[in-house]
Protein backbone atom coordinates (compact mmCIF):
# COMPACT_ATOMS: atom_id res chain seq x y z
CA UNK A 1 0.00 0.00 0.00
CA UNK A 2 1.56 3.33 -1.07
CA UNK A 3 1.42 6.51 1.01
CA UNK A 4 1.76 10.22 0.33
CA UNK A 5 2.18 13.33 2.43
CA UNK A 6 1.64 17.03 1.90
CA UNK A 7 4.47 19.36 2.84
CA UNK A 8 3.21 22.75 3.98
CA UNK A 9 4.82 25.85 5.55
CA UNK A 10 5.49 25.12 9.22
CA UNK A 11 5.65 28.72 10.44
CA UNK A 12 3.11 31.51 10.37
CA UNK A 13 3.30 33.41 7.09
CA UNK A 14 3.42 37.19 7.38
CA UNK A 15 1.98 39.33 4.61
CA UNK A 16 1.41 43.01 3.93
CA UNK A 17 -1.93 44.59 3.11
CA UNK A 18 -1.97 45.04 -0.66
CA UNK A 19 0.97 42.68 -1.08
CA UNK A 20 1.40 39.12 -2.27
CA UNK A 21 1.91 35.81 -0.46
CA UNK A 22 2.21 32.19 -1.57
CA UNK A 23 1.28 29.01 0.30
CA UNK A 24 3.89 26.66 -1.17
CA UNK A 25 2.88 22.98 -1.11
CA UNK A 26 4.64 19.86 -2.29
CA UNK A 27 3.52 16.24 -2.44
CA UNK A 28 5.71 13.36 -1.38
CA UNK A 29 6.33 11.20 -3.35
CA UNK A 30 6.79 13.49 -6.32
CA UNK A 31 5.05 11.06 -8.71
CA UNK A 32 1.76 12.03 -7.10
CA UNK A 33 -0.19 15.12 -8.21
CA UNK A 34 -3.15 17.03 -6.83
CA UNK A 35 -5.95 15.60 -8.94
CA UNK A 36 -8.72 17.33 -7.00
CA UNK A 37 -8.65 19.67 -4.05
CA UNK A 38 -10.25 22.39 -1.96
CA UNK A 39 -8.84 25.36 -0.06
CA UNK A 40 -10.90 26.79 2.78
CA UNK A 41 -10.65 29.82 5.05
CA UNK A 42 -12.35 28.58 8.17
CA UNK A 43 -15.64 27.14 6.83
CA UNK A 44 -15.56 29.36 3.73
CA UNK A 45 -14.39 27.85 0.41
CA UNK A 46 -11.67 29.79 -1.36
CA UNK A 47 -11.22 27.58 -4.41
CA UNK A 48 -12.00 24.05 -5.57
CA UNK A 49 -10.61 22.25 -8.57
CA UNK A 50 -10.97 19.02 -10.47
CA UNK A 51 -8.35 18.24 -13.05
CA UNK A 52 -7.88 21.59 -14.82
CA UNK A 53 -11.01 23.43 -13.81
CA UNK A 54 -10.49 25.68 -10.72
CA UNK A 55 -13.52 27.51 -9.35
CA UNK A 56 -12.97 30.55 -7.13
CA UNK A 57 -15.56 32.02 -4.80
CA UNK A 58 -16.55 35.65 -5.24
CA UNK A 59 -14.48 37.00 -2.33
CA UNK A 60 -11.29 35.61 -3.86
CA UNK A 61 -11.93 35.64 -7.58
CA UNK A 62 -9.32 37.69 -9.42
CA UNK A 63 -6.89 37.91 -6.53
CA UNK A 64 -5.93 34.28 -5.84
CA UNK A 65 -4.75 31.46 -8.09
CA UNK A 66 -4.00 27.79 -7.49
CA UNK A 67 -1.28 25.61 -9.01
CA UNK A 68 -3.19 22.50 -9.97
CA UNK A 69 -0.29 20.03 -9.85
CA UNK A 70 0.62 20.69 -6.23
CA UNK A 71 -2.26 22.71 -4.78
CA UNK A 72 0.01 25.70 -4.10
CA UNK A 73 -2.12 28.82 -3.48
CA UNK A 74 -1.00 32.38 -4.28
CA UNK A 75 -2.61 35.64 -3.14
CA UNK A 76 -1.95 38.49 -5.58
CA UNK A 77 -3.52 41.11 -3.32
CA UNK A 78 -3.92 40.65 0.41
CA UNK A 79 -6.61 42.18 2.57
CA UNK A 80 -6.31 42.73 6.31
CA UNK A 81 -9.29 40.36 6.68
CA UNK A 82 -7.29 37.54 5.08
CA UNK A 83 -5.49 36.84 8.37
CA UNK A 84 -6.32 33.45 9.83
CA UNK A 85 -6.05 29.70 9.30
CA UNK A 86 -6.40 28.02 5.90
CA UNK A 87 -6.88 24.30 5.30
CA UNK A 88 -6.44 22.23 2.17
CA UNK A 89 -7.70 18.75 1.23
CA UNK A 90 -6.26 16.97 -1.82
CA UNK A 91 -6.89 13.69 -3.61
CA UNK A 92 -3.80 12.59 -5.50
CA UNK A 93 -3.42 10.97 -8.82
CA UNK A 94 -2.70 8.35 -9.88
CA UNK A 95 -2.93 6.69 -6.48
CA UNK A 96 -6.11 8.45 -5.31
CA UNK A 97 -4.62 9.17 -1.86
CA UNK A 98 -6.26 11.72 0.44
CA UNK A 99 -3.83 14.18 2.00
CA UNK A 100 -4.24 17.54 3.69
CA UNK A 101 -2.60 20.32 5.64
CA UNK A 102 -3.02 23.75 7.17
CA UNK A 103 -1.38 27.19 6.83
CA UNK A 104 -1.52 30.17 9.23
CA UNK A 105 -1.49 33.65 7.70
CA UNK A 106 -1.03 37.01 9.40
CA UNK A 107 -1.62 40.14 7.33
CA UNK A 108 -0.16 43.44 8.56
CA UNK A 109 -0.64 47.05 7.63
CA UNK A 110 2.83 48.47 6.90
CA UNK A 111 4.09 51.05 9.35
CA UNK A 112 3.90 54.68 8.31
CA UNK A 113 6.56 57.36 8.67
CA UNK A 114 6.59 58.06 12.42
CA UNK A 115 6.38 61.55 13.88
CA UNK A 116 7.65 62.85 17.24
CA UNK A 117 5.88 65.38 19.43
CA UNK A 118 7.00 67.04 22.68
CA UNK A 119 4.70 68.05 25.52
CA UNK A 120 6.88 71.13 26.23
CA UNK A 121 7.60 73.40 23.23
CA UNK A 122 10.45 75.32 24.89
CA UNK A 123 11.79 73.31 27.84
CA UNK A 124 13.86 75.04 30.53
CA UNK A 125 16.98 73.33 31.83
CA UNK A 126 16.65 71.66 35.25
CA UNK A 127 12.98 72.74 35.55
CA UNK A 128 10.95 70.82 32.98
CA UNK A 129 10.10 67.17 32.44
CA UNK A 130 9.83 66.48 28.73
CA UNK A 131 7.76 63.66 27.26
CA UNK A 132 8.37 62.71 23.64
CA UNK A 133 5.62 60.73 21.94
CA UNK A 134 6.08 58.71 18.76
CA UNK A 135 3.07 58.25 16.50
CA UNK A 136 2.82 55.82 13.58
CA UNK A 137 0.07 53.85 11.92
CA UNK A 138 0.28 50.18 11.09
CA UNK A 139 -0.43 46.76 12.56
CA UNK A 140 1.28 45.60 15.75
CA UNK A 141 3.75 48.49 15.72
CA UNK A 142 6.87 48.24 17.87
CA UNK A 143 8.98 51.24 18.89
CA UNK A 144 12.62 52.00 19.59
CA UNK A 145 14.26 55.34 20.43
CA UNK A 146 17.65 56.66 19.43
CA UNK A 147 19.58 59.73 20.57
CA UNK A 148 21.91 60.31 17.68
CA UNK A 149 23.24 56.85 16.85
CA UNK A 150 22.81 55.46 20.38
CA UNK A 151 19.71 53.55 21.40
CA UNK A 152 17.91 55.06 24.38
CA UNK A 153 17.30 52.90 27.45
CA UNK A 154 15.94 53.51 30.96
CA UNK A 155 18.11 55.52 33.36
CA UNK A 156 17.32 57.37 36.61
CA UNK A 157 16.35 60.42 34.51
CA UNK A 158 15.02 58.75 31.38
CA UNK A 159 11.99 56.47 31.36
CA UNK A 160 10.42 54.54 28.50
CA UNK A 161 6.77 53.53 28.59
CA UNK A 162 5.85 49.84 28.59
CA UNK A 163 5.22 49.90 24.84
CA UNK A 164 8.23 52.19 24.20
CA UNK A 165 5.96 54.69 22.49
CA UNK A 166 6.81 57.54 24.87
CA UNK A 167 10.13 58.75 26.18
CA UNK A 168 10.14 60.84 29.37
CA UNK A 169 13.16 62.92 30.41
CA UNK A 170 13.11 64.33 33.96
CA UNK A 171 15.07 67.46 34.82
CA UNK A 172 15.90 68.19 31.21
CA UNK A 173 19.50 69.22 30.50
CA UNK A 174 20.89 71.22 27.61
CA UNK A 175 22.84 68.10 26.63
CA UNK A 176 19.48 66.37 26.03
CA UNK A 177 18.95 68.34 22.81
CA UNK A 178 19.12 65.27 20.53
CA UNK A 179 18.62 64.67 17.68
CA UNK A 180 16.11 62.00 18.66
CA UNK A 181 14.79 59.38 16.26
CA UNK A 182 11.83 57.04 16.60
CA UNK A 183 12.26 53.71 14.79
CA UNK A 184 9.06 51.73 14.18
CA UNK A 185 8.63 48.25 12.78
CA UNK A 186 6.44 45.20 12.53
CA UNK A 187 6.86 41.79 10.89
CA UNK A 188 6.63 43.15 7.36
CA UNK A 189 7.95 46.72 7.36
CA UNK A 190 9.93 49.37 9.20
CA UNK A 191 10.43 53.13 9.14
CA UNK A 192 12.27 55.88 10.99
CA UNK A 193 11.26 59.42 11.87
CA UNK A 194 12.93 62.62 10.82
CA UNK A 195 15.42 63.95 13.41
CA UNK A 196 13.78 65.76 16.32
CA UNK A 197 15.80 68.30 18.30
CA UNK A 198 14.95 69.92 21.63
CA UNK A 199 15.69 73.64 22.07
CA UNK A 200 16.49 73.55 25.78
CA UNK A 201 16.65 77.03 27.31
CA UNK A 202 19.02 78.00 30.10
CA UNK A 203 17.55 78.10 33.58
CA UNK A 204 15.96 81.47 34.42
CA UNK A 205 17.25 81.35 38.01
CA UNK A 206 18.60 84.76 38.92
CA UNK A 207 16.62 86.59 36.21
CA UNK A 208 14.46 89.43 37.56
CA UNK A 209 11.49 90.91 35.76
CA UNK A 210 11.29 94.63 36.52
CA UNK A 211 7.75 95.49 37.54
CA UNK A 212 6.88 99.02 38.67
CA UNK A 213 7.45 97.99 42.28
CA UNK A 214 10.76 96.35 41.43
CA UNK A 215 11.92 99.42 39.51
CA UNK A 216 10.98 101.80 42.32
CA UNK A 217 12.75 99.59 44.82
CA UNK A 218 15.82 99.47 42.62
CA UNK A 219 15.94 103.29 42.33
CA UNK A 220 15.51 103.82 46.06
CA UNK A 221 18.03 101.10 46.80
CA UNK A 222 20.53 102.68 44.41
CA UNK A 223 20.08 106.11 46.01
CA UNK A 224 20.47 104.80 49.53
CA UNK A 225 23.39 102.68 48.41
CA UNK A 226 25.06 105.78 46.95
CA UNK A 227 24.59 107.67 50.19
CA UNK A 228 26.02 104.77 52.15
CA UNK A 229 29.03 104.56 49.83
CA UNK A 230 29.63 108.31 50.22
CA UNK A 231 29.53 108.05 54.00
CA UNK A 232 31.88 105.10 53.99
CA UNK A 233 34.24 106.92 51.63
CA UNK A 234 34.24 109.96 53.91
CA UNK A 235 35.01 107.84 56.95
CA UNK A 236 37.76 106.00 55.10
CA UNK A 237 39.26 109.30 53.91
CA UNK A 238 39.28 110.63 57.44
CA UNK A 239 40.82 107.43 58.67
CA UNK A 240 43.53 107.66 56.01
CA UNK A 241 44.18 111.33 56.87
CA UNK A 242 44.50 110.53 60.55
CA UNK A 243 46.73 107.57 59.81
CA UNK A 244 49.05 109.68 57.67
CA UNK A 245 49.21 112.49 60.14
CA UNK A 246 49.84 110.16 63.03
CA UNK A 247 52.18 107.76 61.32
CA UNK A 248 54.24 109.91 58.93
CA UNK A 249 54.84 113.26 60.67
CA UNK A 250 58.68 112.99 60.71
CA UNK A 251 58.71 112.49 56.91
CA UNK A 252 56.44 115.29 55.75
CA UNK A 253 58.05 118.50 57.08
CA UNK A 254 58.27 119.96 53.59
CA UNK A 255 54.52 119.46 53.08
CA UNK A 256 53.48 121.63 56.05
CA UNK A 257 52.88 125.33 55.55
CA UNK A 258 55.31 127.20 57.84
CA UNK A 259 52.91 130.11 58.31
CA UNK A 260 49.32 128.91 58.07
CA UNK A 261 46.52 131.40 58.59
CA UNK A 262 45.42 131.69 62.17
CA UNK A 263 42.08 130.12 61.31
CA UNK A 264 43.85 127.05 59.93
CA UNK A 265 46.39 126.51 62.63
CA UNK A 266 44.97 123.08 63.30
CA UNK A 267 44.90 122.11 59.57
CA UNK A 268 47.96 121.04 57.60
CA UNK A 269 48.67 121.57 53.93
CA UNK A 270 48.86 118.08 52.40
CA UNK A 271 48.98 119.14 48.77
CA UNK A 272 51.92 116.93 47.98
CA UNK A 273 51.20 114.02 50.30
CA UNK A 274 51.38 110.70 48.52
CA UNK A 275 47.98 109.08 48.04
CA UNK A 276 46.32 111.58 50.41
CA UNK A 277 43.26 113.73 49.74
CA UNK A 278 43.79 117.13 48.07
CA UNK A 279 43.91 120.08 50.51
CA UNK A 280 41.11 122.67 50.52
CA UNK A 281 41.69 125.82 48.47
CA UNK A 282 42.47 128.97 50.51
CA UNK A 283 39.63 130.67 48.64
CA UNK A 284 37.19 128.51 50.58
CA UNK A 285 38.31 129.73 54.01
CA UNK A 286 34.82 130.75 54.96
CA UNK A 287 33.71 127.10 54.89
CA UNK A 288 36.04 126.29 57.72
CA UNK A 289 35.26 129.14 60.10
CA UNK A 290 33.74 126.60 62.42
CA UNK A 291 37.07 124.92 63.10
CA UNK A 292 38.08 125.37 66.71
CA UNK A 293 41.21 127.37 67.30
CA UNK A 294 41.44 125.76 70.68
CA UNK A 295 42.81 122.65 69.01
CA UNK A 296 45.99 124.40 67.87
CA UNK A 297 47.92 122.29 70.32
CA UNK A 298 47.91 119.45 67.77
CA UNK A 299 49.75 121.54 65.23
CA UNK A 300 52.03 123.10 67.85
CA UNK A 301 52.89 119.72 69.27
CA UNK A 302 53.65 118.42 65.79
CA UNK A 303 55.69 121.51 65.00
CA UNK A 304 57.58 121.04 68.18
CA UNK A 305 58.58 117.57 67.15
CA UNK A 306 59.79 118.61 63.73
CA UNK A 307 63.59 118.59 63.33
CA UNK A 308 64.98 122.12 62.75
TrEMBL record:
Residue stretches spanning the membrane: 215-237
PROSITE patterns: IG_LIKE
Keywords for the protein's UniProt record, in alphabetical order: Glycoprotein, Immunoglobulin domain, Membrane, Signal, Transmembrane, Transmembrane helix
Domain Ig-like: from-to ranges: 114-193
Record keyword Transmembrane present: yes
Protein name: Ig-like domain-containing protein
Organism: Erpetoichthys calabaricus
Amino acid sequence: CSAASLITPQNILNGTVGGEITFNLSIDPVNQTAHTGTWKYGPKIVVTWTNSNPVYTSDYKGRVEVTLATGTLKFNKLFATDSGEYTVAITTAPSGLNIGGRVELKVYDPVSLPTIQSNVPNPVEFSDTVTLTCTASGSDVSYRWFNGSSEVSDTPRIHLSADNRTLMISGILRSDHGPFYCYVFNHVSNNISKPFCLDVKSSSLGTVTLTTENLAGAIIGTFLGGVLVSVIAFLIANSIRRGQLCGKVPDIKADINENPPSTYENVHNMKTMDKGPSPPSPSTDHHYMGLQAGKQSIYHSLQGKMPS
